[in-house]
Amino acid sequence: MNFQQLRSVRETVRCGFNLTEVAAMLYTSQPGVSRQIRELEEELGVSIFVRSGKRLTGLTEPGAALLPIVERLLQEAQNLRQAGKEFVSRLEGG
Predict the structure, then answer these.
(1) How far is CA 89 from the centre of its chain?
(2) What per-residue confidence (pLDDT) applies to 78?
(3) Is the Cβ–Cβ distance between 32 and 43 less than 8 Å?
(4) Of 11, 52, 64, 75, whose CB neighbour count within 10 A is largest?
(5) pLDDT per residue over 45-80, tens digit each?
(6) What is the domain-level CATH number for residue 47?
(7) Which is nearest to 69 in space by CA: 89, 44, 51?
């Protein structure tokens, strides 16, 4: 599991399940986004998204339960980066 996979899941929901839009937001390719999602689903052992053919159309029940956790993890990673910047700033300033 990695942050790119988590970002792919979060942005897929934010972009209304449009992987082309997700790919543009994450500066990657649509197949790359699909691969990130598939690898995370395989690791977790659940489908996160409802599929209709090759299209993603919504969240599965497990996906709906996992989304808040994904969002929390990404927020905490941002908080960690911010805390590091603040310490560096204090060390450089003092």
Answers:
(1) 29
(2) 97
(3) no
(4) 11
(5) 999 999 999 999 999 999 999 999 999 999 999 999
(6) 1.10.10.10
(7) 44
